[in-house]
Amino acid sequence: MLGAPVEGYNHTSAAINRFTVNGAGGPNLGPYSGGGGQVCCGSVPRYWRPGLRAIVEWEKDPNPRPVIPLKRNKYGSLDPDDYKKHAANYTSHRMVVDIPLYQEAGTLKMHFLPCDQVSVSADNNFYDTPGYPYNFPRKMEDTECPKT
Considering the entire predicted model, what is its pTM? Predict the structure, then answer.
């Protein structure tokens, strides 16, 4: 096994408050964001093998920018009651996904997609470069549920 940074891409209007891939944590991701921020470290096998999978767990805030902003105190901290009401809408998810073939192990890259779908890659290619296994647009609507 090799150490691998964890990176995320959020293609949705929700916020990803936190996520893990095989137990390794990744950065929080605002709506339609990602790339460039990595957290150390997950692990991947040096050599890909058939049936290689990842367990992905995440918490999603479906309304990260409420119409009525959350109250804050004079120090900028969120009002605890407002926060509890807002956080009651968070959802937790868990999914087991296949990791596509790679020639050289690299960064664990998570893609959060509409309809609570995720895709993972673990190669040395990067998003928007030739050879990258996924071609998701940066912004996707919940009506565009991908077939993964």
Answer: 0.86
